[in-house]
Amino acid sequence: MKKIGTIGVLTSGGDAPGMNAAIRAVTRAALYSGWRVIGIYRGFEGLINNECGELTSQSVSNIIQHGGTILKTARSKEFMTKEGRRKAYQTMKTYDIDALIVIGGNGSITGAQVFAQEYDIPCIGIPGTIDNDLYGTDSTIGYDTALNTIVEAVDKIRDTASSHDRIFFVEVMGRDAGFLAQNSAIAAGAEAAIIPEEKTTIDQLGNFISRGVRKSKNSSIVIVSESKLNGGVMHYAERMRSEYPDYDVRVTILGYLQRGGRPSAFDRILASRLGVAAIEALKEGQRNVMVGIDNDEIVYVPFSRASKMDKPINQELINVLAILSI
User: Fold this and answer.
1) Distance (Å, rounded) from C-alpha 319 to C-alpha 311?
2) Which residues fall within 8 angstroms of residue 188, CB to CB, at 6 or more apart?
3) Where are the beta strands (DSSP E) in 158-263?
4) Which of 18, 118, 178, 316 has a CA that sits 20 to 30 A from residue 193's CA?
């Protein structure tokens, strides 16, 4: 294998709080190892369009506490084509980049896998997504911060729900994974969570309404994952209004505020550990793996498993919410 002298680092897909902490960790760990670091702006799109610049220790000073990503991010349709990836490889040759570190979610890891296979490039993935849907890691960078943002918002919504005897359906992000919905429901004391991993029909929702609101509660919060697999928040709100017209139903879609904000201490520490681990993985000769965390230990997960296998939600969490929502 070619000796590594220069690495490239990029952030791709949706931004997540803690990405800057990961960029900082990758850069400083690489410099500590005697390697040169090239920052690639706007993800794979920037790699195609030669939007690159050298990173120094000073370049990543005072960024650990900021949300978003100093390298910017984008989704690249062109990178999905062979011609796009060929352009990206030419940029890597221009800057003498020997290995690539990709910080992002499922799509980013998949893109890195294809690129690595086509051009025999050592690629290491760092899981950066608020969805927490990558297989092989207990947590992804940004998930904890997003979870806390949701809980803070739901706490405020609860004040209004209680004041007006309302039922609020709150939609949260997560794509096709229910981790944010399920855990924010527990943390915020919500009465139910509707997640794609567990099909929830209006009859089940009706049982919850009958058991909870009519007997002891004058307001309720239902957290709904944005996934189209379960119909989305408007689907449940409309059916609620139709089948239970006596209840005052409101909908709140939290949207992109879940992605922003200063990363939590947990996400800063996780990002720092994974950033250093990505460099250590390259030094060990690892390639085409995602660095993850399992039982507080660093693990290497093959790209094929990280991006293709479904990450299961803990059934215990579903049971906990059911018990505590009475």
Assistant:
1) 18
2) 150, 151, 154, 155, 158, 221, 223
3) 166-172, 192-194, 220-225, 248-253
4) 18
Q: Which CATH number fits domain 144-259: 3.40.50.2300, 3.30.70.330, 1.10.10.10, 3.40.50.460?
A: 3.40.50.460
The reply to whether domains 6-142+263-308 and 144-259 share a CATH topology is: yes
Q: Quote the distance between the C-alpha of residue 169 and its chain's center.
A: 22
Neighbours of 1 (CB within 10 A): 9
Question: Strand 6-11 and strand 99-104: pairing?
Answer: parallel
Report domain 6-142+263-308's class.
Answer: alpha beta
**In the numeric block, which tokens belong to residue 134?**
């990558």
Q: What residues does each domain of the chain span?
A: 6-142+263-308, 144-259
Query: Of the segments 161-170, 178-187, 203-212, which one has the largest average pLDDT value?
Result: 178-187
Ramachandran quadrant class, 23 (left: phi over 0; alpha: psi -120 to 50; beta: rest): alpha
Residues assigned a catalytic role: 131
